[in-house]
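Progress report, Aim 2. The chain analyzed during this reporting quarter is listed below.
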Amino acid sequence: MTDALSITDRSRLRRYHERGQFDRETVYGILDAQPMCSVGYTIDGAPFVTPTLQWRMGDHVYWHGSSASRTLRNSSSAEVCLSVAILDGFVLARSGMHHSVNSRSVTLFGMAEKVTDPEEKLTALAAFVNGLFPGRYEGLRPDTAQDLKATMVLRMPIAEGSAKLRSGGPSDEEEDYALPIWAGVVPVRMEVGAPVPDPRNLEGVAMPEHVTALSLGRAG
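Predicted structure tokens for the chain:
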């Protein structure tokens, strides 16, 4: 496994190529920071994009859903495109042309494959839950055979794709810096709010540490 993703005709950046990154450290960091993704696939020649959650295990990216899902059934053993994006700020320039956003994104291409081994599927689903809430999976009601049958897990090797990053302030035309117009960056961040207990929680059931840790305001 190389330290960089393959640069192909569909993964190379044609504009703002200086913002492109292909090293695994950058790509993995973005994937690990943002679980929300979009998966693009085709059905009968027509394009579809579906939002879902992704997680990374080693050099593969995983996602899951209902075994009856048309999205997953048509993605299995097919070429897909998976994309993750994080908005870090609005960049306000002195002209509409040069307004932008600070962001981090990853776009991956490859063949999605269905995870069929029950133990591998269970391991992947446990990693998904624990990746969001460390230690939670072990305290849950164990998954049943029916749970696993009703759930499809797909994975794709992280081999082809790219990351794209932008940071910093606006880049205006040199003559525009003399204009009396405010410019700058409005930061944006994802913030976790205070947990809301289920009213049907049993009396005396304490909020676990992995939930209270989130309530401290972890941001990504």
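The chain has one domain: 17-171+206-214. Residues 17-171+206-214 form a domain with the Pnp Oxidase; Chain A fold (CATH 2.30.110.10). These observations will guide the mutagenesis work planned for the next reporting period.
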